[in-house]
Amino acid sequence: MSNAVLIPIVIGVLLVLVGGFYLVSTRSGRAIPPGSDAAPGGGSVATAEPDLLPAEADTDAEAVVAPGDLEALDEAEVADSGAAAPVDEAPVDEAPVVEKATFRNRLARARGAFSGALGSIRGRSAIDAETWDDLEEALIRADVGLGPTTALLEAVRATVKERGITTPDQLIEAVKSEMTTRLLAPIDMRRADEAPSIWLFVGVNGVGKTTTIGKVGKQLSDDGLKVVMAAGDTFRAAAAEQLSTWADRCGAEIVRGAEGSDPSAVIFDGIAHAAASGADVVLADTAGRLHTKSNLMDELRKVRRVADKGAGEVTEVLLVLDATTGQNGLIQAKQFTDAVELTGVVLTKLDGSAKGGIVFAIQSELGIPVKLVGLGEQAEDLIPFDAEQFVDALFSE
Ligand SMILES: Nc1nc2c(ncn2[C@@H]2O[C@H](COP(=O)(O)OP(=O)(O)O)[C@@H](O)[C@H]2O)c(=O)[nH]1
Ligand SMILES: [Mg+2]
């Protein structure tokens, strides 16, 4: 056979092989959690990570235990796992395979708020009054807050003087290092000496409480811990369904109550079930509530008191905050911590927020550590907060 015939045949065979491989690799990508409809942050395509969420979630039947029915704990009712459906939107089968979430690759919007100012600061030959104005404006635009911005820049001015800094690049380095030292180092989630560790998730509506519990549950389960989820959002039946979908995904158990039932009873039963079944961690969901509604804040106080009475120990009370709400998050944090004494903040949706500076405001104004951040909607898009990486991402080109 001549080359003129052979070459097209070889190319054809190669195309078929490559096409087939592509189909197989996208199908074996990660499953998308409920509520997601697109790759977050623009979703650049990269290699699949085999140990992440499999396309077929592990649908081990969950034990559903009604509150107050503690005797039934051992023979927990087996739920029809097929019935559990994502609440907000239909599941997406063909998920694009997305790069592993890092501060650098998911903070495009937050960085955008800074980049203009940084460009003009770097473009000047020296540090002048305009430089300081640009810096101040960028920090305030990123929702660092007026007080923290002023304090930060004062410290940087002192450093500039002390070290004789003259170039814009040195100045930016000084700002970065001042910001990093003002943020708390990563703080681990606390586990109880005697199981179960109980983690309560609180916050206003739609901030990502249930999704965060799902992500945390998946990561803990993957680490070999036994997780029980308590569906303390009894306000809407859909909320328990949403949590139940996540529980299926992680092979976690879920304890839920009737719609409108007392959330503290559901959480108490979740703790009791966890203790009886030797679980390590209870992840307790709560209904979204406005920090301004005092009756609902009282309900939260009760949840906390009741959870304290059960087995194990409440080691984390995490306020889930939506990073896109910026400074309003600070007001929420103040009110919630008055009611339930927060141990930390989970800052969600940082992937879509230009207001990344809120991390700074929360830590410096309230002294509450940001422990976890949500950088997307998939289970692995929840990562521990890291001050250095965060600041570095804000200032990267
Ligand atoms: N982009 C992005 N979306 C998130 C993140 N966390 C949660 N969400 C989405 O926010 C929406 C509300 O989440 P949900 O957990 O139901 O909020 P809840 O009312 O506080 O329980 C859902 O569509 C989630 O997928 C995040 O870190 N990034
Ligand atoms: Mg919820």
Protein traits:
single chain; alpha/beta; Four Helix Bundle (Hemerythrin (Met), subunit A); Rossmann fold; 10 strands; 11% strand; binds guanosine-5'-diphosphate; binds magnesium ion
Overall body shape: elongated
Report helical residue fraction.
40-55%
The chain-level mean pLDDT equals 79
Strand order, main sheet: write it out.
2-1-5-4-6-3-7-8-9-10
Quote the beta fraction. 5-15%
Radius of gyration, whole Å = 24 Å
- Report, as a whole number of angstroms, the end-to-end distance: 55 Å
Find the CATH topology of the domain at 197-342: Rossmann fold
Brief summary of the model shown:
The chain is built from 13 helices and 10 strands. With 397 residues, the protein is an alpha/beta fold. The longest helix is centred in the N-terminal third of the chain and has 25 residues, at 3-27.
Description:
- The chain is α/β, with parallel strands linked by helices and 397 residues long.
- Among the domains are: 108-182, Four Helix Bundle (Hemerythrin (Met), subunit A); 197-342, Rossmann fold (3-Layer(aba) Sandwich).
- It has helices at residues 3-27, 103-106, 108-123, 129-141, 146-163, 168-182, 209-222, 237-250, 263-276, 294-309, 328-340, 358-366, 387-395, and strands at residues 63-65, 77-78, 197-202, 227-230, 253-255, 281-284, 313-322, 344-348, 370-374, 382-384.
- It has a ten-stranded mixed sheet, with helices on both faces.
- α4 runs antiparallel to α5, α5 crosses α6 and α6 (168-182) runs antiparallel to α13 (387-395).
- The radius of gyration is 24 Å and the shape is elongated.
- Residues 13-90 have low confidence and may be disordered.
